[in-house]
Each structure stands twice: as structure tokens, then as C-alpha cells.
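Can anyone check this?
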Amino acid sequence: MASLTGLTASAASVSDAALHVSGLCKSYAGETVIAGIDFVVPPATCFGLLGPNGAGKTTTLRCCLGLTTPDRGHIRLAGRPVPAEAEAARTRVGVVPQFDNLDPDFTSSENLLVYGRYFGIKDAAIRDRIPGLLDFAGLTGKANARIQSLSGGMKRRLTLARALINDPDIIFLDEPTTGLDPQARHLIWERLKRLMVGGKTLILTTHFMDEAERLCDRLAVLDHGGLIAEGAPRELITSHIEPQVVEIFGDGAAAWASTRQGLGERLEMAGDTAFFYCRDAAPLLAALAGETGPASGLRYVHRAASLEDVFLKLTGRDLRD
């Protein structure tokens, strides 16, 4: 696979980068998990790493944090080589793991206090930071609450607050809103945007394409261990996908679509839904007029192309486990 070094080098100089990855490779038991990837994350931006399950995202993050030793390649995190100086680099990093690992025996404030001690911060300094962090996380009044009494959204926000206890420059977020309701997701999005305004660098993995589209300045799509696309969300949509999508579903949708493939640039089938990707959807919409509704069993949605369309085109619609 061609290297994307030329594409990423213009995004930020290596010396200024929050994270620089070059030629990263990792295999387990002879199976390649990461196949020579390159990317640069400029400071005070949000960089998204997207990919299906098993694409190599978690291994990439573990290598970047110095938790897994790569077979080949170079990593600089917060200006320090990893894994050689990983411990020093991690003092400038916060991590929001995929699954909350708060201590159930402690209150909210005690979780923050104990975690802050891992960074060698004095208790008095940690206690001074706790009220502001709880307020930032929308948990004012929950300082003495036991973890078991918090909702899923509260726990996720407390995990985010915990990742900020050392005032990090760089924050790794592994699927930060999985399992949350829309209200909690939007609150976390607002808080993450506030962090970027404050100069923090975010490195995000997510399966929510709308989340990546909202938050990321730049993102890379990883599949089978290689980077297959990189760019700003809107750039990827413009360069990889037709601008309009018509989804046709219901009884007979597949048969109807199969005889009208020429009405779009591209047709994809997923179950009983036909996806027409079009530069001009007018002919297709005209053909649908009068043929949809309760009597025909056909229905349709006409929408603009999204990052999810790009993701599915690049990585396929087959289920990954």
C-alpha cells in the first residue's frame, strides 16, 4: 500500500507535532496488525482514527502510548520518542478508555484524587482542581456520590474529568460516547470542543461517523492494518463519494432498483435497501414519483452524502467481528 507520508507531512512539521507516527508496523504470531502507517497530528486539533473492528486502531493507540512495542517504525508523542521515553510522554497525556474503569469503592472526588496521585501531584493541588473538573463534566453536586449511584452518562463524564486531572496537552479518547443517549453525547461533544478551544489536542477513535464529522479537523481511515484514506471530513466526502444519495427500501426495492441502475452513478444493496449514489438525483426522483407509498410498498429517503457513506465505500458493508 502506498505511503501517505507526503499527504500528512504538510499538515504539521514533525518538530511541532503533538503526535508523529512514521512507518509503524506490528505483527502478532505472524499476522500483520499494522502495516507501515504514517500520520501527523498538529497541536490543538482533533484527529480521528476510524476503522472497522479488527482494523488495527487499538494496537495503533497502544503503540502511540508506549503500552505495546512496535516491530518497526518511529513514534514521537509530546515531543518525546516512544517507547524509549513513553513514561515521560504520558505525563502530558490524558486517556479516556473505551470502557469506564472507575473505582466503585470511591466517590467521584476520591476517584479524581487517587488518579492524580499517579502523576505525582500533591493532594492539595488535586483538591484545588476537583471542583473545576466536576463542573466541566456537568457533575457539580456529585463530588461525594458513589460510582454505583451515577448514570452511564455521568460515569463517562467523570472518566473524561479524570483524564484531565494532570492538565494534559494531548487527550486520547477511545470511543468516548459509546452507549450514551443523544443528550449525553451532545454534552460530551460540547466539552470536547471546549478543550480544543483551550489548546488541547484530541486523538479520537469512534464508530459514530457523525461524531467524527462534527469533531475532527482531520481523520484517517484504517483497514487491515493500513491507512486507506486521510483528510478533512468534508474533503473525504467530496473526493470519495457522489454528492447525493437516494435510499429506497421496502417490498420490491431490490427488484425495482435492479432495472434502473443507470439512474445513478453507483448502486449498492444492503438487505432490502437500495442505495443510489448520484451526481444528479433528479432523474431517479422522477422515476420514483408515483411509485412509492403504502400501495406500492416502496419508500425512499433523499439526502446529502455523509462520512458514513465514505466509510462504507472504503471498508465495505460486510459485518466485522
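Reply from J.R.: I decoded it. The first strand starts at residue 19 and ends at 28.
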